[in-house]
Every structure is written in C-alpha cells, then in structure tokens.
Amino acid sequence: MNTSMEATERNRIISFLIYTFTISFGLYFLFFHTPKNDDCYTSFSETRQIIQMVAQNILLISPAIGVIITRITTSEGFGNLWLKPNFKGNVRYYLMAWLGSVLLLAVGVWAYYIFIYRHDVANFLDSRSPLYGLQIDSEFGYNIETDEILLAILSALWGPATYLFICLCQEWAWCGYLLPKLAKRFSPIPLILINGLICGLWYAPLVVEGIYYGNEYSGFPIAGILAMCLHCVVVGALQYYLCVKTQSCIPAVLISGVIKGSYLNVLNFHLGNFNPNKLLGPEAYGIVAGCGFVVAAVIVAIVWHRNYKKETLTTHSENKIIIE
C-alpha cells in the first residue's frame, strides 16, 4: 500500500470511528443521561420512554450508519462490502460460526450454573431458611442444569434469524468495514485486541444504561464496560478469523445472533429477591458464562498467528499484505 492510499485508508478509519461514536454517545447524552428526579423527566415520562426506545434502536444500528456516512463523505463508494456470503468452499466456516458458537454458549452457561449460580442461590436460601439450603440440590438442580441450558440452546439456534437486522448493522461495520482495513495494518493478535476494544467501547452507553449487566454490581459502570470489552475481544477472535477466511461479515452476524438470541431467554429462574451478578453470567456477556468463547479465542489466536507467520515468510519477497 503506497503512502497516499495508506493516508486515505487511515482517514476513512478515523472518520468511521468519529461518526459512529458521535452518534451513539450523542444519543445517550441527549436522551438517556437525565437524572430520574428531573422535573422534565417525571412530567414527560411516557413520552420520554417512547423517545428513548427509538433512540436506543438508532444507537444499536449506529455502526452501519457510520459506515454509510463514511463511504459517502470520503468518496469511497459502495464496493467491496463484505456482504456476499461466499458459501462455496466455506460451508465449514459457517457451521463453525452457527453451531460452534451455540456449543460454546452451552458450555459457558453450564459452567456458570454449576460453579456460580448454584452456589449463590444456596447462600441466598441459607440466609433465608436453613431448610431451603438443604433442599437446593434436589429441588432446583434439574431446572438449573437442564431446563435453562436447553432453553438457551434452542433460543440461540434461532437467534441469527430473530436478530438478523440488528446484528447485520453492527457486524457489517465491525467485521465488514473496520476489520479489512485494520487487517492490512496489523497482525492477528493486535488486530483482535484493537478491533475488539473499539467494539467494546462502543457498547459503553448501553452498559452505563444497565441494559447488559444491570446497575447493581460492584464497580458500576467501569467494571461493566471492561467486561464488555473483554467479551468483544474473545468473541471477536472467532468472528474475525471466520470473516477473514470467508471474506464476508456473515459469519460474525451468525455468532452475534446466537449470543443475542440467548440473552433474554437464558434466565427464567427467579427466586424471591435474588438477583445474580450479571458480570459473571448467565448470558455470554458475563465473564464466567463466556468461558467457552475465551477458550476458543485462545485457540484461534494461536492458530491464526502461526498461519500468519508462515504466510508472511513465504510471501515476504513478493511484498504482499496477508490478512488470512
């Protein structure tokens, strides 16, 4: 890439980030960042809720809006969109994206219920009644270990179809626009970290609003933002690898849909005033519930890095840019 082209691509990356983050953070400060005791808030609460719902939906698709504005204002045009599935020869990557991510999700949810949720519920019941504490394994064990995990799997399988539009608007930006540009500049591991952190920080307004982790955990909201950045990095590793292999953002859409599909359905088990620490789970956004994706991220990073080094060595004399 010559100096002129490199400068142009750098300006497009910066423009995309400015547009996207300005829209998302601007919407947050305009429509969400208002004290609950504000007179205006209480006087127009119903109207405000409608406005906030619309603003939240715009915020969720703001990455795609950022891409469109960038492509127009920088005269980039609408070629090389990474929207074509390219199924030929890549079916295995799509199976990894869909069924593989469902498996990783199930492993994480199972780990959360076994090692975190059962323990927390037992302590909660013990504090209320010793009798409940003795009964937890027999009374709640089946629900926790089987019903909720099966529910998460079933809902996750349909997630890509249910959340297709939102996931496409987000992943087209992160994996169909930003990823190819960063891949020309960075090797796999820095690429995973940089793209993942950018994506995680974009979620900050939604985390501050309590949409993903609530607002009752220790360290709110910084701990939640850091947890979301970690989530985007580890899930992004698999997304980016599969997208680069297929030259399409669709694998990332599938993975994102699986995670979003399980989000609202994975926790239907309620017990009085007990509230789980959502920083840990049960959704895949939690640190423990996302452990399956953490393992996958480590494996992907190692394999991708080794392949990258081999490809770089064999093509160094031809001065090619390697993004696979």
Instruction: Report on the biggest sheet.
Output: none
Shape: globular
Helix content: over 70%
Please report the total strand number as a whole number.
0
**Quick check: average pLDDT?**
84
Whole-number total of structural domains: 2
Please write the string of helix (H) and strand (E) elements. Answer: HHHHHHHHHHHH
Oligomeric state of shown chains: single chain
Q: What Rg is obtained from the alpha carbons, in whole angstroms? A: 21 Å
Strand content: under 5%
Number of helical regions: 12
List low-confidence stretches. 131-142, 266-272, 315-322
Describe this protein with a few key phrases:
324 residues; mainly alpha; 2 domains; 73% helix; 0% strand; globular
Description:
This protein has helices spanning 3-31, 39-43, 45-60, 62-73, 91-128, 130-162, 164-183, 188-202, 204-208, 222-246, 250-263, 291-315. It has 324 residues and is an all-alpha fold. It has two domains: 1-79; 82-318, no CATH class. It is globular.
Question: How does the SSE layout of this entry go?
Answer:
Elements: H1 3-31, H2 39-43, H3 45-60, H4 62-73, H5 91-128, H6 130-162, H7 164-183, H8 188-202, H9 204-208, H10 222-246, H11 250-263, H12 291-315
Helix pairs in contact: 1-3, 1-4, 4-7, 5-6, 5-10, 5-11, 5-12, 6-11, 7-8, 7-10, 7-11, 8-10, 10-11, 10-12
Structure described in brief:
By secondary structure, the protein is an all-alpha fold. 73% of the residues lie in helices and 0% in strands.
